[in-house]
Specification:
alpha+beta; Immunoglobulin-like; 3 domains; 22 strands; four-stranded mixed beta sheet
Length: 337
């Protein structure tokens, strides 16, 4: 195995922490980076899943990670930037420090009191870019809109959004409640540049009625097929063809699997690890002859797993798959019937 791959493996969450029977746990204490005070009610979770817990009155947590060994762990709290952990040592209780969110608002703050029309107009732009413009996104409702601060910089034509509290989203199309910890949002009109950085945890909407479940299942299936999650699950299984996907290069030539996927030998805690590695743009088609989505690699290696998880900071999406935003997210536990 190349030394560069060995270095990558060393940074992944693929070790046994402490074991009770066949259950594996991670434990630790969450502290303020500046004051070292313990942070109570901080969220400890796997991004994009139902799996998570909260710290107690002493800032302490324990979490069963048995079913999510291949995923990094996220820690978030009110008023703090999130931290993602990918490297663990066996039999160790962790001290994890969070950095407080301090905004230097040099841009124009768009408040509801100063100009309600301007606030409404810019908030609608934020929702379209953040949630998306699909049918699912249009059925999403942000229940704490007033917690979101919008700023605009006329010098670079950029809209930014901040929130000390997590953004609470009710997705009425898919039947989920989403708690989204937003770390960064930037959108530039002139260049169409968009950056969304954050993490989320899912909850089933407890207000849903049994009569609605079949409708949710249909919408979830329709959302899943052709999605980024569907693509990476098919990529893991090496069955892109049967799943309806085709991957081509810039010359419209179909690429063989080994041209852009690297697989390691099996290791403890996982069968093997897989990575995307390609110099150039990957063109992805789903049930069409012409590719409608493009993958631009921002890192040399992009880790992904069998549940469809991938390093979100390692890829820039363009085309059809880029339209899938927060309103089209499915939890990694989701399996189409």
């Amino acid at each position: 195995m190349p030394s560069s791959m060995r270095k990558i493996i060393s940074f992944l969450l693929l070790v046994n922490l402490y074991t009770i029977g066949y259950t594996q746990f991670i434990k630790g204490t969450i502290l303020d980076q500046n004051t070292h005070t313990k942070i109570i009610f901080a969220s400890v979770y796997f991004n994009g899943t139902f799996v998570g817990t909260y710290t107690d009155q002493n800032g302490y947590f324990e979490l069963d990670i048995s079913k999510n060994l291949s995923m990094p762990l996220t820690i978030s709290a009110l008023g703090y930037y999130s931290v993602t952990l990918t490297n663990f040592i066996t039999d160790k209780s962790y001290l994890i420090y969070l950095t407080p969110k301090i905004y230097e608002l040099k841009e124009i703050v768009i408040t509801g009191k100063a100009n309600s029309f301007e606030r409404k107009t810019n908030f609608n732009i934020f929702k379209i870019e953040f949630l998306g413009a699909t049918l699912n996104a249009m059925s999403c409702h942000i229940t704490n809109e007033d917690d979101i601060i919008l700023t605009y910089n006329p010098d670079n034509d950029t809209l930014k959004a901040f929130s000390s509290n997590p953004i609470l989203i009710n997705n009425k199309a898919l039947g989920y409640n989403i708690i989204y910890y937003l770390d960064k949002f930037e959108f530039c009109w002139s260049t169409n540049y968009l950056l969304i950085k954050g993490n989320c945890i899912f909850k089933e909407d407890s207000t849903n009625k049994n009569s609605q479940q079949k409708r949710f299942e249909r919408r979830r299936e329709s959302t899943f097929f052709g999605s980024r999650m569907h693509f990476f699950r098919a990529l893991w299984e090496n069955n892109l063809d049967s799943a309806g996907f085709t991957v081509k290069d810039s010359a419209n030539v179909r690429l063989s699997y080994d041209k852009y996927v690297i697989q390691t030998d099996s290791i403890v805690g996982s069968d093997h690890l897989k990575y995307l590695k390609y110099h150039g743009i990957l063109f992805v088609a789903y049930n069409t002859k012409l590719p409608k989505s493009r993958i631009m690699m921002l890192k040399e290696y992009i880790y992904f797993d069998k549940d469809g998880f991938f390093d979100p900071l390692g890829i820039s999406w363009q085309g059809e798959m880029a339209r899938q935003r927060i309103g089209d997210l499915l939890p990694f536990e989701y399996k189409p019937k």
